[in-house]
Amino acid sequence: MTAVATSGEIKAGKASRGLAAPSWLAAWLQATPLLLILGFFFILPILTIIVVSFWDYDFAGLYPDFLTMNYADTLGSWVTWKTYLNTLKFTAITWALTLFIGFWVAYFLAFHIRTTTMQMVLFLVCTVPFLTSNIIRMISWIPVLGRNGLVNSTLIEVGIIPQPIEWLLYSDFAVVLAMVHLNTLFMVTPIFNTLMRIDRSLIEAARDCGASGWQVLWNVILPLAKPGMAIGSIFVVTLVMADFSTVQVMSGGQSASVALMMKNQMSLLQYPAAAANAVVLLVVVLLMVAAILRVVDIRKEL
Amino acid sequence: MTTETKTATPEKGISRRTLLKTGAAAVGAIAGSGAITGFPTIWAQNPITLRQFGTGVSNINAIAEKCKEDLGITLEMTATDSDAAAQRAVTQPDSYDIADIEYWIAKKVFPSGVMQPMDVSKIKYYDKIVPLFIDGKLKPESVVAQGTAPHTVGFVEAQDSKSFAKAPTQWMTLIPTIYNADTLGIRPDLVGREITTWADIMDPAFKGKTAILNIPSIGIMDAAMIMEAMGNIKYADKGNMTTDEIDQTIDFLIKAKQDGQFRAFWKSFDESVNLMASGEVVIQSMWSPAVAAVRSKGIACKYQPLKEGYRAWGGGLGLAAHLQGAQLDAAYEYINWYLSGWVGAYLNRQGYYSAAMETAKAHMSEDEWGFWVEGKPAKGDILSPEGKVMEKAGAVRDGGSFEERMGKVACWNSVMDEDRYMVRRWNEFIAA
C-alpha cells in the first residue's frame, strides 16, 4: 500500500514538473480544439477548392491537372464582369439602406427607450421574423408584390393606379427589397450593442459644452458607433455578395449574381469552373472586408 | 432539377400496396393476378437484388414494390437529376446494375463502354414496343423528328459494339420506359385568343407575361421551336445546332429579354406552377404534370397543342456491362415483366406513355384507355395511380390521342456537339 502510494506521489510530482517545464505546451493544447475545427472545416475545404480550381473536367469527371483555363475562362468573359458588377450594385444599395435603417432603429432602441426591460423586449420583437426561415420570408413577398398581389390590387381598388405596377415583382426593386428585409437585423444588432456601451456622461458633457442635438450625433455618437457599423457592414456585405436564392427568386431568374453563376456551373457538373469562380469571389470579399477594417479599427474602438 | 438524391428500397409496405390496389380496383383494372403467372419463381428461393439508378421511373416506388411482389427481385432505386445520372453512368459503372437514363444521356454514355446491349430475342414483348423506338416512325408515313430521336441511339451493331446502328439490329441499348410530348401551357381565361403556334409566346400582346424554362439543354430547344415558328431561321437539326445557329438563337432571346417580353425564367416544377397559378404569366414552357397541378387548384390551364408540333423526351432502362449469369437473367426477367403491362398501365395513368401500349391496355379500364390514349372524353372521373381524381367526367386530354400527340413530335431532347458553347451563351442570356 505505502509503496504504491509513494510511487503514485513520485509520479504525480514528476508529472507536474513535466507539465510545468514547456510552458508553450499548455497554450498549444488550449488552442488545439479551435485549430482542429478551423483546420478541418475551414482551411481544408478552401484548400480543396483552390486545388480543384486548377483541374480539367468534362461531363464525366474531374481530372487532376494544373491549368489556368478555368481562371482564364472566368476572368476573360464579359458575363463574369457584368455579373460581378450586378452583384456589387446589389451589395452597395443593400448596404447603404440597411446601414441607414439599422442605425436609426438601434438609435431609437438605445436612446429613446428608457427602461432596459423595454429595450430588450423591443429588440426581441426585431428578431421575431427570424423565427421563420429566410426562404419563407423571401417567398412571402411574392403574393404581396405580384401582378395580382396585395399591393397592386389594393392600389387599383382605391383608384390610385389604373393598371398593376409591373416592376414590383421580378425586378431589381424586388431583389433589393428582399435583401434589405433579410439583412437589416444584422446591422441593428452590432450597432445597438455599441450604442449601449457609450458612456452617457459623454453626451451630457457635450450638451454642457453647448453642442446641439445634431452636433452630439455627428461628433460623439457616430464616431463611437463606428465599430458596430463596421461589424454590421461585414455581415451584410459578405451575405449579399454570396447570395443566390434571393436574386434567383425575386428577379424571377432575370438577374444574375456571382453565386448563382456558380450554382449553374455546379448543376452542370463543371466543378472546377465553379471552384475558380469561388476563389475569385473569396478574394473579392476578403478585399472588401479588409477595406472595411482599414477604415475602422474594430479592436481599438471596442 | 434538384441535385437531391434519394434512395428507396421497397419494404413490406402493406398499407401502401393495399391502397394502390384499392385505387386500381376502383377503376376496375386489376387484372394483375393474370399477368403474374408464367414468370418463374426461382428468385424467391435465390434472392436477387438489382440496383437501379436514374431520372425517370426510378422515382416511382410503386414499381419496385410490385416487382418484389411479382418476381421476388428486390429493386434498389436511386433517383438523381439528369446531369448527375450521366456522370454516374460513366464514372461509377460498378455502382449500378440497371441505368434508367434518357436517350440523349445514352448518346453520351454508351460509347464509353460501361453498358451492354440487350439481345432482342430474349425480350418477350419486343414486337409490342412502339415503332417510334424502333425506326423513329409512329406510323409508316410519319416523319422522323430532329434531335436525339430514340431510334438513332436505340441499337448498336453487335453485342460488344460501342457504335450506334443506323437500322434496328439484334442489340438494343435501352428499353423505353417513360416518354411524353411537351408543349406550351396557357391560361385560356387570360390569353384572350386562340393560341396555335410556338411563335405566339413572342406576341407583343403578352409582353411581360411569358416565361421559358432556365434549363439550358431544354430551354434552347423551346427557343428553337419559337425561332423556327417565327420564320427567323431554318435549323438543319434543332437538336444539334452549329455555333452560328446557337448565336442567332441566343441573340434573339437576349433581344426579347431586353424588350421585356419575359416575366421570369423558371428552373423548378413548382416555380412554373406558381407563375401560372398566380397569373404572372399567361403563356410559358411547361411540363404536363405542372399543368395538372395548376388545374388541381381550380385554375384553368391548358397544355396547348401547336401546329409546329411537340418537343418530346424519353427515357429507358439499360444494362450495366458487368451484369452476368443469374443477375443478367434476372435483369432480362425484370425487363420482360416491365413490358408485360402492369407498369405500362401505371405510367399511362400518370399521363406519360409506356413502351408497349398493347400490353398496358389489358391493365387499364376502357374509360381510362379512352381518356389517356385514345383522346376520348372521360365517362367517369379519371384517377391517378394513387387514387386522386385527376380529371372529372367529360374531360378530354389536351392534344388528344396518343397518335395525335406522339405523331407530331418535331424534335427530341438532345445533347449537342457544341454543348459547352451553348451553355456559355445561355449564361450570357441570363446575365444580359
TrEMBL record, chain A:
Keywords: Cell membrane, Membrane, Transmembrane, Transmembrane helix, Transport. SUPFAM superfamilies: MetI-like. Gene3D superfamilies: MetI-like. GO terms for cellular component: plasma membrane. It is found in: Cell membrane. InterPro entries: MetI-like, MetI-like_sf. Residues 84-292 form the ABC transmembrane type-1 domain. This is ABC transporter permease. It comes from Sinorhizobium glycinis. The lineage of its organism: Bacteria, Pseudomonadati, Pseudomonadota, Alphaproteobacteria, Hyphomicrobiales.
TrEMBL record, chain B:
InterPro entries: SBP, TAT_signal. SUPFAM superfamilies: Periplasmic binding protein-like II. Keywords: Periplasm, Signal. Gene3D superfamilies: Periplasmic binding protein-like II. Pfam families: SBP_bac_8. The keyword Signal applies. This is ABC transporter substrate-binding protein. It comes from Sinorhizobium glycinis.
